[in-house]
Amino acid sequence: MNTAIELTELTKTYGTRRGLRGLTLQVRAGEVFGYLGPNGAGKSTTIRLLLDLIRPTSGAARVLGLDPRANAVELHRRIGYLAGDFVVDGRQKAGECLTFLGNLRGGVSPHRIAALADRLELDLSARIKTLSKGNRQKVGLVQAFMHQPELLVLDEPTSGLDPLVQQTFLDMVAEARADGQTVFMSSHIMSEVEAVADRVAIIRDGALVALDTVAELRARSFLTVRITFADPVRAEDFAALPGVTQVTTDGPTLSCRVDGSPDALVKAAARHTVTALRADTQDLEELFHAYYTGAPSAA
């Protein structure tokens, strides 16, 4: 099986409000797929449709080659799911809860549960109602990973986690991919997805606006360049160069944006005496914000 998830014109409406609009995409088996978008974009709606927690208005979904509605019981055994609002019985101890959930899946080794809890610094003896949001999220992560499912579906998985635990989580995702598992991970934070994802989809207002590898999306970013010369320069001497836009000058200082290779700019600058040069790659967070808002990226 080469495709873990296949969505075709998937649409979900809530009365007059549309949660998802004709979403079509494929997630390859064995990849980490980042599903990005601002809060309210339709990420959780997509995940609930994949798991048959809600039903589509129109369109179709296939998960691990099966129909989520007709084969829900079998699929749920093969999937590890962390909801964006993970909730369990607060009266139980964390270890008791995880053992119970493991037994529902046919049994999970106590050593496996303990090892994951240790990595995430989760106290299995603590009652869930006494745990902070971050520690409850750790319980959710353990229950998703503990049975080593074919497919991990993770909705905002790092919510409430401190930076060190976030890194541990990213290590766990990378290990899952190395073991041949597929990871579908929704987030509104680019940096955590960038660290592990093979491909990224960006959703806005229920519609897909971009789908590519992180490397290709990064290649679409641009340089902001600031060059200081020994003497004043004219903007028109640089404005017509290929890939160079938004040229401004302030005496001996030139500022501009460069899309693609900076070769032409470097050669033009070499005709003058350069005293200082700074070139910054556009932050990917800025690039993704442009997709989120529909606004053009600014230099």
TrEMBL record:
For this UniProt record, the keywords arranged alphabetically read as follows: ATP-binding, Nucleotide-binding, Transport
Q: Which Pfam families match?
A: ABC_tran (PF00005)
Please provide, alphabetically and separated by semicolons, the GO molecular function terms listed in this UniProt record.
ATP binding; ATP hydrolysis activity
Nucleotide-binding found in the keyword field:
yes
Q: Can you name this protein?
A: ABC-2 type transport system ATP-binding protein
InterPro entries per UniProt: AAA+_ATPase, ABC_transporter-like_ATP-bd, ABC_transporter-like_CS, ABC_Transporter_VariousFunc, P-loop_NTPase
Tell me the organism. Answer: Actinomadura coerulea
Q: What Gene3D superfamilies does the annotation carry?
A: P-loop containing nucleotide triphosphate hydrolases
Q: Where is the ABC transporter domain?
A: 5-230
